[in-house]
Amino acid sequence: MLDVREVYAEPAALESPRGRQIMARLPGVRVTEVDSHWRIPSLHGNDGNIGRWVRIKTETLVLGVKRTLATRPNGRSADWIAPGPSNGCAMACAYCYVPRRKGFANPITLFTNIEAIVAHIRRHIRAQGPKPEPNQCDPSAWVYDIGENGDCSVDALVSDNTADLVAAFRTLPTAKASFATKFVNPDLLALDPQGRTRVRFSVMPPDDARLLDIRTSPVPDRIAAAADFLDAGYEVHFNLSPVVLRPGWQRDWAGLLDHLDDVLPARVKEQAAAEVIMLTHNQSLHEVNLGWHPRAEELLWQPTVQETKRSQNGALNVRYDHEIKAQSLSRLRQLIAEHAPWLRIRYAF
Ligand code: SF4
């Protein structure tokens, strides 16, 4: 997954305890100091990098200090989106929204001021008090998404940021951390979350994943890991996402649900819940993908069934036509009821 050969780092990040710890594990790696982890001209906005999209993710790491620490309300997957410990990812899902703000390369940026991030989250949780009533996020805990802009399982290969967050939530009885992942990292099994971290394994039919989920753990491996994670103290949910419409999608999602039903033990099923998320895409990412993985775009870019919407930052986002989306979600709910009736849907959109 990672074979780090170059690090771009803000000086303050290099000097921090977390930065020093990360660099101690990367002896001899070339370091280039940068003023800002957001502005690295040779990485971001350099369209010569499209052809090196995956190689940059393997070989480059960025270290930065997260300056704005803010927790945002969410209300769908989680109650709150916490300031994440990273931005960027070593995997290369063709539909990933994380690179949208970064231009042409999106390696992992690790934020080294993890103590400040944890302190901010603690303060935010304390200020909420106990959760007053159950909602779709959780019956009793405030849920904080800690991995909005990356994959915490992969981050844990190179940094203790994920471990620090799991440890912090262990001591916060009114709250729970939550992150989605497509990578099975057995190191996480040793973190002792004591039920205060929810892992959401993202799944989709394996044929789609082979084309779209580049560099991730195979879907059957993610499903097979669920019981180990539960036994290690995590809550284990599933993200059925993204749902990509194509000929045969209903048959293949039914097959995936049958597989979940066949292989998951009862103790996983009893506590499982799912989010269902239809594909959204983006014109700029479409253009980037045409440069390195055009076959994925045959699935992702389907103007006859998609509509565009300009977002607040001017980007042109693409999603399934309203009617088609509503019908597909309803069909998927039906398939879940038939093939995996134990799988509670927390939300679908
Ligand atoms: S695992 Fe998540 S963050 Fe990483 S490339 Fe895939 S969608 Fe993006």
Automatic annotation (TrEMBL):
InterPro entries in the cross-refs: SPL (IPR049539), Uncharacterised_Spl-rel (IPR023805)
Q: Which GO terms describe its molecular function?
A: lyase activity
Arranged from A to Z, the UniProt key words for this protein are: Lyase
Can you say what this protein is called? Spore photoproduct lyase family protein
* A Pfam family per the record: SPL
Key word Phosphoprotein present in the record?
A: no
PANTHER family in the record, alphabetically? SPORE PHOTOPRODUCT LYASE, SPORE PHOTOPRODUCT LYASE-RELATED
Q: What Gene3D superfamilies does UniProt report for this protein, alphabetically? A: 3.40.50.12110, 3.80.30.30
Q: What is the lineage of its organism?
A: Bacteria, Bacillati, Actinomycetota, Actinomycetes, Kitasatosporales
